[in-house]
Amino acid sequence: MRDHFAQYFEEMPCYLSVHDRDFRIIHGNQRFRRDFGAQGDYCYRAYKGRDSVCEGCPVEKTFIEGVPQISEQTLHTRDGREIPVRVRTTPIRDEAGQIVAVMEMHTDISESKRLQEQLAHSRQRLAQLFEEVPCYLSVQGPDRIIQHANRRFRETFGPAIGEPCYRVYKHRDEQCIVCNAQVAYREGKPFEHEEVVVSADGREINVLVTTAPLRNARGEVEAVIEMAVDITQIRQLQSQLASIGLLVGSISHGIKGLLTGLDGGLYLVNSGFERGDEARLKKGWEMVVRNVERIRSMVLDILYYAKDRELEVVDVDVAALVAELAEVMDKKAADSNVALRFDVAPGVGTLPGDSKALRAMLVNILENSLEACRAEAGRKDLRVTMSVRRLDPWLVMVVEDNGIGMDRETREKLFSLFFSSKGSKGTGLGLFIANKIVDKHGGSIAVDSEVGRGSRFVIRLPLEARPSTRPTGELAPMTAAATGS
Amino acid sequence: MGLRRILVVDDDPDIREYFAAVLHDHGYEVAEAGDSSAALSELERFLPDVVIVDVLLPGRSGLDLLVNLRRSPRWSATPLVVVTGVDQLLQDDCQSYLGAHAGVEGPDAVLGKPIDPSTLLAVLRAIDARQVPAS
To answer: Does the bond joining B114 to the residue before it have cis omega, within 30 degrees of 0?
Structure first.
């Protein structure tokens, strides 16, 4: 019987050893001897190559406390391997109940250690993936509270964890009417939608959102994961493309009208030559000149729109600017039988601005007024006046005509891109650009007009440099001046 | 030549003058109007045989005028030529606009800008040839 137990002890598939109070190894089984050497050695030397007892030694603890101990340790074999082990100790007592030795059993836990490490590593990778994925990731509970959010999400929407999603995304205090996260939660399947959310610093972001239910081990939906991809740039590009499409259509339409005008001029010139009709020739040539001029200003408008250049601000001599303007516009007005008058108050001085841009803006507005008069061709009393005066802190320019006038719709859309009331002649760029230039200078344009009575444009420009505070691309709201005239 | 009196409706005086010169030179009588309401008074005064109308006019559009004329017992049979710079769009716009006004017959011809004199004259001759000989 004793031999049997000795054999069991020998063959046990773990390290078995018995230690005395001095930490000497009294017995060690076959496997123990193979990896840790001869009996009679001190365990601390055999296991770890130390010269004194290890801290927290389970054998020592068993001797002191008299009860079995369990712990984990790393042992060093004779051939230099490190083996993680689970250590179980149990006291061995004599007939008097005194502890005379401690039996120690070491089970090799390398494999489970390896699996544990692998699991921790996978978890860490997953967390890192969640954290670093280049889109907004969040997990929301059924109560719409954000439970987890990745780095990108937190950077854009702030420390969102613990907050309801509608507050984080939309800066609202009430939940959204349609909530796809809730739908995903309820129906247990993924959904995709597009929406506009607001970042912590108030930026609007177009996002493509995919929501999917997260299930627990029993298959019940516990939360919803939401992945939002920023598609703002794509949407901006699309709207720019749409603008370009409109621009191309508008330009094509404008050019065709002007070409017809040129055809008309050429017809009159040619037939005037053939007949020796000088009056017709003159009329035709004027028509050619007028339409070439229109094409020229249309092309310049298009180029300005295409470039959207920065202002080159200098001190602009206002009186000189107006004189230059008169030079360009006088002939045009005379050709259309419109009396054009400039009224510059003395001492208007200088204005901080971009002289080229200001000139282009005023030419656009004056041409618009001349056009409004030309639509009434035949009348003898057509006139356009431009007055300029200082009204601190503004320079105020008023351009007034008694042409065809505008209805409310035209007035309201006046400064919109591609809006034109000029039928075949307009691209809808001129006043849009004029408004943009004034806005860039920190000023404003107001308009007052009535069908049959003419129009009045009031342009205010700051006398102190004060660039627009609006984000690029956004225009000044148009204010209709209430003059009651 | 059965059709002699032409009303040109366009807001661009250059284009009106151009058409008027071409038409005069080829034996037509011409009246001009710069918008739809001027066109309506010219109709009464001038009694045209054909109306040439631009689509984009200040105020009521050329298509609006077309629907008006087609529905009026007095002018419904008067040939109408529509002129536009938005040629491709016009076909669709015209269809959808007229679609919204059930029963209204479309224009007799559509001319896309730019328009050379021979095209303008050819269109008028074609319309003339289609007319049932009356007086």
So the answer is: yes
A245-299: per-residue pLDDT in tens? 666 777 777 888 889 999 999 999 999 999 999 999 999 999 999 889 888 877 8
Q: Which of B12, B59, B87 sits opposite A424 (nearest CB)?
A: B12
B25: chain A residues, CB-CB within 8 Å: 271
B51, part of any domain: yes
pLDDT of residue A55: 87
- Chain B residues with CB-CB distance to A265 below 8 A: 14, 18
- CATH number, domain of B93, equals 3.40.50.2300
Answer yes or no: do B85 and A404 touch at CB < 8 A. Answer: no
Q: Per the CB < 8 Å rule, is A267 touching B117? A: yes
* Residue-by-residue DSSP string for A440-458: HTT-EEEEEEETTTEEEEE
Q: How many domains does chain B have?
A: 1
Contact A263 B116 (CB under 8 A): yes
**Confidence band, pLDDT 50/70/90 cuts, at residue B97:** low
Does the beta-carbon distance from A287 to B25 stay under 8 Å? no
B94 found inside a domain: yes
pLDDT tens-digit readout, A138-185: 999 988 899 999 999 999 999 888 999 888 888 888 888 778 888 888
Phi then psi dihedrals of residue A271, to 5 deg: -70, -30
Tell me how long chain A is. Answer: 485
Per-residue model confidence (pLDDT) at position A229? 94
Indicate yes or no: CB of A268 within 8 angstroms of CB of B18.
yes
Does residue B54 sit at the A interface (CB-CB below 8 Å)? yes
Give the residue on A whose Cα is nearest the Cα of B118: A267
B42 touches chain A (CB under 8 A): no
Mutate to test the interface with B, among A263, A373, A418 (most CBs of B within 10 A): A263
Q: Give the nearest partner residue to A423 out of B18, B58, B87, using CB atoms.
A: B58
Torsion of CA A439, A440, A443, A444, to 10 degrees: -10
Task: Please report where in the chains the tokens 């009434």 appear, as a residue.
Answer: A376
A132: Cβ contacts below 8 Å, ≥ 6 apart: A150, A151
Enumerate the residues of chain A whose CB falls inside 8 A of the CB of residue B34.
Answer: 375, 377
Q: What is the value of ipTM here, to two decimals?
A: 0.83
Q: Which of A68-77, A80-89, A429-438, B84-93 has the lowest mean pLDDT?
A: B84-93
Domain that holds residue B119: 5-130
Is the CB of A290 inside 8 Å of chain B's CB atoms?
Answer: yes
Do A260 and A251 form a contact (C-beta atoms < 8 A)? no
Residue of chain B whose alpha carbon sits nearest to that of A290: B14
To the question of pTM greater than 0.80 for the whole model, the response is: no
How many residues does the structure list for chain B? 135
Cα gap A157→A172, rounded to integer Å: 13
Q: Is residue B135 in some structural domain?
A: no
CB contact under 8 A, A267 and B86: no
